[in-house]
Amino acid sequence: MPQAVTLTDINNIQVGVDGNPIAVSLPTVVCFSSGNTPGAQAQVSIPAVAGKTAYVTSIDFTSGGSTAAAVVNATLAGLVGGTTLQFAYGTLANNAADNKEFFRDFVNPIPANAPNTAIVWTVSSLGAGNLRAYANIYGFYK
After folding, report:
1. Vertex 97, ends 95 and 98: CA angle to 5°?
2. Strand order from edge to edge, sheet including 70-79
C-alpha cells in the first residue's frame, strides 16, 4: 500500500503518516560562466551528465561596447525537441560604455533534448574594441 505523504510547514520536508522523513531526490542546481571573452564568441553550457537531464532556468549576457555598433546573433541550443532559440543582441559604438544586460528567466525550466545532452548558450563576437563579454547559464540536473 502506498505511504501517504504530507509536507511540513517548517522545513518543507516530506514525511510519512508515521512522522518519519521520506527520502526525496532533489535536483542538482548548477550555474556556469564563460568568463571574460573580449572580442570573441562567448559560449557556456550546462554540460552533459550521464543518466541525467539538464534543465535551463535562465541565461544572461553582460558586456561593454565595441569600436563599432553592431547587432549580433545569440543562440540557446540542445533543447527539447531539438529546438534552438534565437536572440539578437546590440553593442554600442563605445568600448568605455556598458551595453544593456541581456537576461531571460524561463518560468518553466526548459529541458535538454535528451538525457546526457548539453544545453549551450552562445553569443557571437561583439567585434573589435570589445573589452568585456560574459555569458552565464543557470539550471539544474534531474
Report:
1. 110
2. 42-46, 119-123, 70-79, 83-91
How many other C-beta atoms are found inside a 10 Å radius of the C-beta of residue 5?
11
Residue ranges per domain, the chain? 25-141
List, as one string, the DSSP characters of 55-87.
EEEEEEEEEB--SS-EEEEEEEEEEGGGEEEEE
Antiparallel, parallel or unpaired: β 14-16 and 54-63:
unpaired
Alpha-carbon distance of 35 to 75, in angstroms, equals 18
pLDDT in tens, 53-97: 999 999 999 999 999 999 999 999 999 999 999 999 999 999 899
pTM: 0.82
What CATH number was assigned to the domain covering residues 25-141?
2.60.120
Residue 45 pairs in a beta bridge with 120
Lowest mean pLDDT across 8-17, 69-78, 106-115? 8-17
